[in-house]
Protein backbone atom coordinates (compact mmCIF):
# COMPACT_ATOMS: atom_id res chain seq x y z
CA UNK A 1 0.00 0.00 0.00
CA UNK A 2 0.94 3.66 -0.28
CA UNK A 3 1.20 4.01 3.51
CA UNK A 4 3.56 1.04 3.79
CA UNK A 5 5.80 2.35 1.02
CA UNK A 6 5.87 5.80 2.62
CA UNK A 7 6.81 4.36 6.03
CA UNK A 8 9.51 2.20 4.45
CA UNK A 9 10.94 5.28 2.74
CA UNK A 10 11.03 7.21 6.03
CA UNK A 11 12.64 4.28 7.90
CA UNK A 12 15.34 3.99 5.21
CA UNK A 13 16.11 7.70 5.56
CA UNK A 14 16.45 7.29 9.32
CA UNK A 15 18.66 4.26 8.87
CA UNK A 16 20.99 6.31 6.67
CA UNK A 17 21.42 8.90 9.46
CA UNK A 18 22.12 6.06 11.93
CA UNK A 19 24.73 4.44 9.66
CA UNK A 20 26.48 7.81 9.25
CA UNK A 21 26.36 8.51 12.99
CA UNK A 22 24.47 11.76 12.34
CA UNK A 23 22.54 12.12 15.60
CA UNK A 24 21.43 15.72 14.96
CA UNK A 25 20.21 14.85 11.47
CA UNK A 26 18.29 11.87 12.80
CA UNK A 27 16.51 13.96 15.44
CA UNK A 28 15.58 16.63 12.88
CA UNK A 29 14.26 13.94 10.53
CA UNK A 30 12.13 12.48 13.36
CA UNK A 31 10.79 15.92 14.24
CA UNK A 32 9.91 16.77 10.65
CA UNK A 33 8.44 13.37 9.74
CA UNK A 34 7.29 11.84 13.05
CA UNK A 35 5.87 8.34 13.38
CA UNK A 36 4.16 9.25 16.65
CA UNK A 37 3.25 12.32 18.68
CA UNK A 38 6.27 12.04 20.96
CA UNK A 39 8.69 12.44 18.06
CA UNK A 40 7.15 15.82 17.18
CA UNK A 41 8.56 17.26 20.38
CA UNK A 42 11.97 15.61 20.60
CA UNK A 43 14.54 18.09 21.86
CA UNK A 44 17.79 18.13 19.95
CA UNK A 45 19.50 19.99 22.80
CA UNK A 46 18.55 17.29 25.32
CA UNK A 47 19.21 14.33 23.13
CA UNK A 48 22.60 15.65 22.08
CA UNK A 49 23.81 14.73 25.59
CA UNK A 50 22.37 11.20 25.42
CA UNK A 51 23.72 8.78 22.79
CA UNK A 52 20.41 8.42 20.94
CA UNK A 53 21.84 6.28 18.16
CA UNK A 54 23.35 3.78 20.60
CA UNK A 55 20.13 3.65 22.61
CA UNK A 56 17.96 3.09 19.53
CA UNK A 57 20.31 0.44 18.18
CA UNK A 58 20.32 -1.47 21.47
CA UNK A 59 16.51 -1.24 21.73
CA UNK A 60 16.28 -2.79 18.25
CA UNK A 61 18.70 -5.57 19.25
CA UNK A 62 16.79 -6.35 22.45
CA UNK A 63 13.52 -6.48 20.55
CA UNK A 64 14.81 -9.65 18.86
CA UNK A 65 16.68 -11.12 21.86
CA UNK A 66 14.01 -13.05 23.73
CA UNK A 67 15.91 -14.47 26.69
CA UNK A 68 17.92 -11.54 28.01
CA UNK A 69 15.55 -10.96 30.92
CA UNK A 70 12.45 -12.54 32.40
CA UNK A 71 9.81 -11.89 35.07
CA UNK A 72 9.95 -13.23 38.61
CA UNK A 73 8.34 -12.78 41.99
CA UNK A 74 10.18 -12.83 45.29
CA UNK A 75 8.70 -14.49 48.37
CA UNK A 76 9.75 -14.83 52.01
CA UNK A 77 10.30 -18.46 52.96
CA UNK A 78 8.70 -17.89 56.38
CA UNK A 79 8.28 -14.21 57.17
CA UNK A 80 10.58 -11.18 57.04
CA UNK A 81 13.29 -12.69 59.24
CA UNK A 82 13.71 -15.58 56.80
CA UNK A 83 15.42 -16.02 53.45
CA UNK A 84 13.89 -14.93 50.14
CA UNK A 85 13.11 -17.41 47.38
CA UNK A 86 12.84 -16.76 43.66
CA UNK A 87 9.64 -17.72 41.83
CA UNK A 88 9.38 -17.75 38.04
CA UNK A 89 6.17 -16.03 36.95
CA UNK A 90 5.32 -14.69 33.49
CA UNK A 91 3.35 -11.91 35.22
CA UNK A 92 5.86 -11.36 38.01
CA UNK A 93 6.50 -7.91 39.41
CA UNK A 94 10.28 -8.03 38.93
CA UNK A 95 12.13 -8.12 35.60
CA UNK A 96 15.62 -9.57 36.09
CA UNK A 97 18.50 -10.03 33.68
CA UNK A 98 21.01 -11.44 36.18
CA UNK A 99 20.73 -13.80 39.15
CA UNK A 100 23.43 -14.27 41.81
CA UNK A 101 24.75 -17.79 42.19
CA UNK A 102 22.75 -19.75 44.79
CA UNK A 103 25.59 -19.44 47.30
CA UNK A 104 25.64 -15.64 46.91
CA UNK A 105 21.94 -15.12 47.69
CA UNK A 106 20.45 -14.04 51.02
CA UNK A 107 23.84 -13.16 52.53
CA UNK A 108 23.09 -11.00 55.56
CA UNK A 109 24.18 -10.38 59.13
CA UNK A 110 22.55 -9.12 62.30
CA UNK A 111 24.13 -5.84 63.42
CA UNK A 112 24.02 -5.66 67.22
CA UNK A 113 24.65 -1.89 67.25
CA UNK A 114 21.92 -1.10 64.76
CA UNK A 115 19.72 -3.90 66.08
CA UNK A 116 18.87 -4.63 62.46
CA UNK A 117 19.77 -6.79 59.50
CA UNK A 118 22.39 -5.66 56.98
CA UNK A 119 23.99 -7.27 53.91
CA UNK A 120 27.08 -9.35 54.52
CA UNK A 121 30.09 -7.13 53.91
CA UNK A 122 31.18 -9.46 51.09
CA UNK A 123 28.20 -8.33 48.97
CA UNK A 124 27.06 -4.95 50.33
CA UNK A 125 29.25 -2.96 47.93
CA UNK A 126 27.95 -4.64 44.77
CA UNK A 127 24.26 -3.87 44.21
CA UNK A 128 22.36 -0.60 44.57
CA UNK A 129 18.56 -0.54 44.43
CA UNK A 130 17.29 2.90 43.42
CA UNK A 131 13.65 3.49 44.40
CA UNK A 132 11.18 6.06 43.13
CA UNK A 133 8.01 5.68 45.24
CA UNK A 134 4.63 6.98 44.16
CA UNK A 135 3.74 10.21 45.91
CA UNK A 136 0.29 9.04 46.93
CA UNK A 137 -1.47 5.85 47.92
CA UNK A 138 -3.63 4.50 45.08
CA UNK A 139 -6.84 5.35 46.94
CA UNK A 140 -5.71 8.95 47.38
CA UNK A 141 -5.82 9.61 43.64
CA UNK A 142 -9.16 8.02 42.84
CA UNK A 143 -10.43 9.26 39.51
CA UNK A 144 -6.96 10.41 38.41
CA UNK A 145 -4.10 8.68 36.64
CA UNK A 146 -2.36 6.55 39.25
CA UNK A 147 1.36 6.89 39.88
CA UNK A 148 3.80 4.00 39.67
CA UNK A 149 6.07 2.64 42.38
CA UNK A 150 9.34 1.96 40.60
CA UNK A 151 12.79 0.56 41.28
CA UNK A 152 15.93 -0.31 39.34
CA UNK A 153 18.97 -2.23 40.58
CA UNK A 154 22.45 -1.42 39.34
CA UNK A 155 25.29 -3.94 39.63
CA UNK A 156 28.50 -1.98 40.18
CA UNK A 157 31.67 -2.99 38.34
CA UNK A 158 32.69 -6.23 40.05
CA UNK A 159 36.40 -6.88 39.71
CA UNK A 160 35.99 -10.38 41.14
CA UNK A 161 34.06 -11.49 38.04
CA UNK A 162 34.85 -8.88 35.38
CA UNK A 163 38.37 -7.84 36.25
CA UNK A 164 41.35 -8.45 33.99
CA UNK A 165 43.54 -11.49 34.67
CA UNK A 166 47.10 -10.35 34.03
CA UNK A 167 47.42 -9.75 30.30
CA UNK A 168 44.01 -11.28 29.64
CA UNK A 169 41.63 -8.34 29.29
CA UNK A 170 37.99 -9.30 29.59
CA UNK A 171 35.99 -7.67 26.76
CA UNK A 172 33.37 -5.14 27.88
CA UNK A 173 30.65 -7.08 26.09
CA UNK A 174 31.35 -10.12 28.28
CA UNK A 175 30.87 -8.30 31.60
CA UNK A 176 27.93 -9.24 33.80
CA UNK A 177 28.41 -6.20 36.05
CA UNK A 178 28.38 -2.43 35.43
CA UNK A 179 24.81 -2.61 34.21
CA UNK A 180 21.24 -2.80 35.46
CA UNK A 181 20.05 -6.22 36.54
CA UNK A 182 16.50 -5.65 37.87
CA UNK A 183 13.54 -3.36 37.28
CA UNK A 184 10.18 -3.00 39.03
CA UNK A 185 7.28 -0.78 37.97
CA UNK A 186 3.91 -1.40 39.60
CA UNK A 187 0.84 0.79 39.83
CA UNK A 188 -1.69 -1.17 41.89
CA UNK A 189 0.37 -1.95 44.99
CA UNK A 190 0.03 -0.45 48.44
CA UNK A 191 2.89 1.30 50.19
CA UNK A 192 3.43 -1.67 52.49
CA UNK A 193 3.48 -4.11 49.57
CA UNK A 194 5.97 -1.94 47.68
CA UNK A 195 8.21 -1.58 50.73
CA UNK A 196 8.01 -5.34 51.32
CA UNK A 197 9.00 -6.00 47.70
CA UNK A 198 11.97 -3.65 48.06
CA UNK A 199 13.05 -5.42 51.25
CA UNK A 200 12.87 -8.82 49.54
CA UNK A 201 14.96 -7.59 46.59
CA UNK A 202 17.58 -6.14 48.94
CA UNK A 203 17.82 -9.33 51.02
CA UNK A 204 17.94 -11.65 47.99
CA UNK A 205 20.74 -9.73 46.24
CA UNK A 206 22.44 -8.19 49.27
CA UNK A 207 21.65 -4.78 47.79
CA UNK A 208 21.62 -1.37 49.47
CA UNK A 209 18.50 0.79 49.08
CA UNK A 210 18.94 4.38 47.84
CA UNK A 211 15.44 5.91 47.77
CA UNK A 212 13.93 9.19 46.77
CA UNK A 213 13.10 10.76 50.12
CA UNK A 214 10.35 13.24 49.17
CA UNK A 215 8.11 10.60 50.71
CA UNK A 216 9.65 8.68 53.58
CA UNK A 217 7.62 5.50 53.97
CA UNK A 218 10.35 3.22 52.55
CA UNK A 219 12.81 4.59 55.10
CA UNK A 220 10.25 4.23 57.88
CA UNK A 221 9.27 0.67 56.96
CA UNK A 222 12.88 -0.51 56.66
CA UNK A 223 13.58 0.77 60.17
CA UNK A 224 10.32 -0.64 61.56
CA UNK A 225 10.93 -4.08 60.00
CA UNK A 226 14.56 -4.39 61.07
CA UNK A 227 16.30 -3.62 57.76
CA UNK A 228 18.05 -0.38 58.78
CA UNK A 229 21.39 -1.83 57.69
CA UNK A 230 20.19 -2.01 54.06
CA UNK A 231 19.73 1.77 53.80
CA UNK A 232 22.39 3.54 51.73
CA UNK A 233 23.67 6.92 52.87
CA UNK A 234 25.95 9.51 51.35
CA UNK A 235 28.95 10.72 53.34
CA UNK A 236 29.65 14.41 53.94
CA UNK A 237 32.94 16.17 53.26
CA UNK A 238 34.14 15.32 56.78
CA UNK A 239 33.57 11.63 56.35
CA UNK A 240 30.39 11.43 58.40
CA UNK A 241 27.25 9.60 57.35
CA UNK A 242 24.46 12.00 56.36
CA UNK A 243 21.31 11.89 58.55
CA UNK A 244 19.01 10.33 55.92
CA UNK A 245 19.55 7.82 53.11
CA UNK A 246 18.96 8.56 49.43
CA UNK A 247 18.13 11.99 48.08
CA UNK A 248 15.39 14.61 48.30
CA UNK A 249 14.36 15.99 44.91
CA UNK A 250 12.88 19.42 44.23
CA UNK A 251 12.73 21.97 41.40
CA UNK A 252 14.53 24.72 43.31
CA UNK A 253 17.91 26.00 42.19
CA UNK A 254 19.44 24.87 45.48
CA UNK A 255 18.59 21.23 44.79
CA UNK A 256 20.83 19.57 42.21
CA UNK A 257 19.40 16.05 42.35
CA UNK A 258 17.57 16.14 39.01
CA UNK A 259 20.62 17.51 37.21
CA UNK A 260 22.82 14.96 38.98
CA UNK A 261 20.51 12.19 37.76
CA UNK A 262 20.71 13.39 34.15
CA UNK A 263 24.49 13.73 34.39
CA UNK A 264 24.77 10.21 35.82
CA UNK A 265 22.64 8.79 33.02
CA UNK A 266 24.67 10.64 30.40
CA UNK A 267 27.92 9.20 31.75
CA UNK A 268 26.47 5.70 32.00
CA UNK A 269 24.81 5.63 28.58
CA UNK A 270 27.86 6.84 26.66
CA UNK A 271 29.47 3.45 27.29
CA UNK A 272 26.77 1.29 28.84
CA UNK A 273 23.89 1.80 26.40
CA UNK A 274 25.11 -0.81 23.94
CA UNK A 275 25.46 -3.43 26.72
CA UNK A 276 22.29 -2.67 28.70
CA UNK A 277 19.87 -5.60 28.91
CA UNK A 278 16.69 -3.85 30.09
CA UNK A 279 14.75 -2.51 27.13
CA UNK A 280 12.22 -0.88 29.47
CA UNK A 281 14.97 1.33 30.91
CA UNK A 282 16.38 2.26 27.51
CA UNK A 283 12.92 3.20 26.23
CA UNK A 284 12.44 5.67 29.06
CA UNK A 285 15.93 7.11 28.50
CA UNK A 286 15.04 7.49 24.83
CA UNK A 287 11.67 9.13 25.44
CA UNK A 288 12.32 11.54 28.30
CA UNK A 289 12.65 15.13 27.16
CA UNK A 290 14.27 17.03 30.00
CA UNK A 291 14.23 17.35 33.78
CA UNK A 292 10.67 18.65 33.83
CA UNK A 293 9.46 15.23 32.63
CA UNK A 294 11.07 13.10 35.31
CA UNK A 295 7.76 12.59 37.11
CA UNK A 296 6.47 10.82 33.97
CA UNK A 297 9.38 8.39 33.69
CA UNK A 298 9.56 6.38 36.89
CA UNK A 299 12.18 3.82 35.82
CA UNK A 300 14.42 6.62 34.56
CA UNK A 301 14.17 8.27 37.98
CA UNK A 302 14.70 5.01 39.87
CA UNK A 303 17.70 4.10 37.72
CA UNK A 304 19.08 7.58 38.29
CA UNK A 305 18.92 7.08 42.06
CA UNK A 306 20.70 3.75 41.67
CA UNK A 307 23.50 5.41 39.70
CA UNK A 308 23.78 8.20 42.27
CA UNK A 309 23.83 5.67 45.08
CA UNK A 310 26.58 3.69 43.39
CA UNK A 311 28.91 6.65 44.01
CA UNK A 312 28.46 6.52 47.78
CA UNK A 313 31.53 5.42 49.73
CA UNK A 314 29.41 4.39 52.72
CA UNK A 315 29.40 0.62 51.88
CA UNK A 316 33.19 0.69 51.53
CA UNK A 317 33.43 2.44 54.89
CA UNK A 318 31.31 -0.31 56.50
CA UNK A 319 33.30 -3.02 54.71
CA UNK A 320 36.64 -1.64 55.95
CA UNK A 321 35.24 -1.37 59.46
CA UNK A 322 34.09 -5.00 59.33
CA UNK A 323 37.50 -6.16 58.10
CA UNK A 324 39.24 -4.16 60.83
CA UNK A 325 37.04 -5.77 63.49
CA UNK A 326 37.83 -9.24 62.12
CA UNK A 327 41.59 -8.51 62.21
CA UNK A 328 41.34 -7.16 65.79
CA UNK A 329 39.41 -10.27 66.84
CA UNK A 330 42.01 -12.61 65.33
CA UNK A 331 44.84 -10.69 66.98
CA UNK A 332 43.04 -10.83 70.30
CA UNK A 333 42.67 -14.61 69.98
CA UNK A 334 46.39 -15.09 69.34
CA UNK A 335 47.39 -13.72 72.72
CA UNK A 336 47.02 -15.60 75.99
CA UNK A 337 45.69 -13.08 78.46
Detail the topology: elements first, then pairings.
Layout: H1 2-19, H2 23-32, H3 37-40, H4 44-47, H5 52-64, E1 70-76, E2 84-88, E3 94-96, E4 108-111, E5 116-119, E6 127-132, E7 149-155, H6 159-162, E8 179-186, H7 191-205, E9 208-211, H8 217-224, H9 257-272, H10 279-287, H11 298-309, H12 314-334
Parallel strand pairs: 6-9
Antiparallel strand pairs: 1-2, 1-3, 3-8, 4-5, 6-7, 7-8
Helix pairs in contact: 1-2, 5-10, 7-8, 9-11, 10-11
Compute the number of strand runs.
9
Strand content: 5-15%
Q: Tell me, rounded to a whole number, the average pLDDT.
A: 86
Binned, the helix content reads: 25-40%
Decide which structural class fits the backbone. alpha+beta
Distance between the termini: 92 Å
Radius of gyration: 22 Å
Shape: globular
What is the H/E string? HHHHHEEEEEEEHEHEHHHHH
- Output the number of helix runs: 12
- Main β sheet profile: 7 strands, mixed
Low-confidence stretches: 326-332
Query: How do the strands line up in the largest sheet?
Result: 2-1-3-8-7-6-9
